[in-house]
Design goal:
There is one protein chain. The protein has helices at about 5-15, 35-45, 60-70, 70-85, 110-130, 140-145, 150-160, 165-170, 175-180, 265-270, 295-300, 365-370; strands at about 25-30, 50-55, 90-95, 130-135, 185-190, 190-195, 205, 210, 215-220, 225-230, 235-240, 240-245, 245-250, 255-260, 280-285, 305-310, 330-335, 340-345, 350, 355. By secondary structure, the chain is α+β, with helices and mostly antiparallel strands. The chain has 2 domains: about 5-160, Thermophilic metalloprotease-like (3-Layer(aba) Sandwich); about 165-370, no CATH class. It is globular and about 50 Å long. The two termini are about 25 Å apart. Keywords: Aminopeptidase, Hydrolase, Metal-binding, Metalloprotease, Protease. This is Aminopeptidase. InterPro entries: M29_Exopeptidase (IPR052170), M29_N-terminal (IPR035097), Peptidase_M29 (IPR000787).
């Protein structure tokens, strides 16, 4: 029997997130075991009179490739993948790895090369040249990360992913307008006193068109404007390793000191290239149903009452000039049970302890976004 929640999700992805039109080519790229969703997506794409293409990838195979790959091999892989991507009008990426740490034992230099020569070139075509959306798929591994039973997590997953994103989209307009006229931002909290400018860098709302689940408004700091210190209280996975209590010190936009539960590994990533020590994104999370981190950035960066600050590559839509093969969303949660905190725009308090306090922004508080 077909799960109606799954059919609804597939329909939302095809008709709302990537808006498939007749004759368009759509690449379904699935990492892990997701046959039910892939089948539902194929049906929906055909229903929209599009042309589905499917790639199925096993994360263990990716690990084996990364372990002994060569530069020549990766460049050829990137050439092949980018050629395919340029023929696609839309992209739906499904991530369902059974083990979040599958890549943990790949040497850092190998992983960096894999990202720089293969993944980043493909991403640089996919993001600007296709209508794309990326999502996770529920499995026991994700349930473990969320500290839930498999059944409870599945119910949570479909509640979050089938949220009314059109309602969220409309509610975000006021925050976008405010950010677009803001110059100075200050963020304070336990271990954090950070200031930077976002002047003349566009704010972009994310309400179900690029990520599922979704729920953030992002921009980028003026590259050299970031000053102060930030301590992230949410765990932050990267390349198969979970970092805890990442603390970053900034001078003139650059990370000059970085510590965590593995400081050496952290700094090795930040030394990937020059841009990895500068910030490419600042975003505010507002999804009412995502309350706690589960070591999966597609969920964690949208946590209610959170923000994230991203070393590495900026987005074209909120361009601050920073270029890097790294894009690492690091999350801080400011609700009271996580230590609280404040966000100020041009010396005006806009959010305190995870709740918006300006009247025009209260529509983004969780009781106003949930069903």
């Amino acid at each position: 029997m077909k799960d109606p929640r799954l059919e609804e999700l597939a329909r939302n992805l095809v008709t709302y997130s990537v808006r498939v039109q007749p004759g368009e080519n759509v690449l379904i790229h699935a990492i892990g075991h997701t046959p039910e969703l892939v089948e539902a997506l194929v049906r929906e794409i055909y229903r929209a009179k599009g042309n589905p293409f499917v790639q199925l990838i096993d994360p263990r195979i990716k690990r084996e490739l990364a372990m002994q790959c060569t530069e020549e091999q990766l460049m050829l892989m990137a050439e092949s993948e980018t050629a395919l991507m340029r023929k696609m009008d839309a992209y739906i990426g499904i991530r369902a790895a059974d083990n979040i740490n599958e890549l943990a034992d790949v040497p850092a230099d190998r992983m960096s090369m894999f990202s720089r020569l293969y993944e980043r070139p493909v991403l640089n075509v996919r993001v600007p040249e296709t209508k794309w959306v990326v999502l996770r798929y529920p499995n026991p591994s994700m349930a473990q990360l969320a500290n839930m039973s498999t059944d409870a997590f599945e119910q949570f997953y479909f509640r979050v992913c089938n949220l009314d994103y059109s309602k969220m989209n409309e509610a975000m307009d006021s925050l976008v307008e405010l950010m677009n006229r803001t110059d100075r931002v200050r963020i304070v909290g336990p271990g954090t006193d950070l200031s930077f400018s976002i002047k003349d860098i566009p704010a972009v709302k994310c309400a179900g068109l690029r990520n599922i689940p979704d729920g953030e408004v992002y921009t980028a700091p003026v590259r050299d404007s970031v000053q102060g210190v930030i301590t992230h209280n949410a765990p932050t996975p990267y390349n198969g390793f979970t970092f805890e209590q990442v603390c970053l010190h900034f001078e003139q936009g650059r990370i000059v000191k970085a510590t965590a539960n593995d400081t050496e590994r952290l700094n090795a990533i930040l030394d990937t290239d020059e841009g990895a020590r500068y910030i490419g994104e600042f975003a505010i999370g507002v999804n009412p149903y995502i309350q706690n981190p589960m070591k999966d950035i597609l969920f964690d960066e949208k946590i209610d009452g959170s923000f994230h600050f991203t070393p590495g590559q900026c987005y074209k839509e909120a361009y601050n000039g920073n270029q890097s093969s790294v894009h690492w969303d690091m999350v801080s949660i400011q609700r009271p049970e996580w230590g609280g905190g404040e966000i100020w725009f041009d010396d005006v308090l806009i959010r305190k302890d995870g709740r918006f306090v300006l009247p025009e922004l209260t529509c983004l508080n969780p009781e106003n976004l949930g069903s």
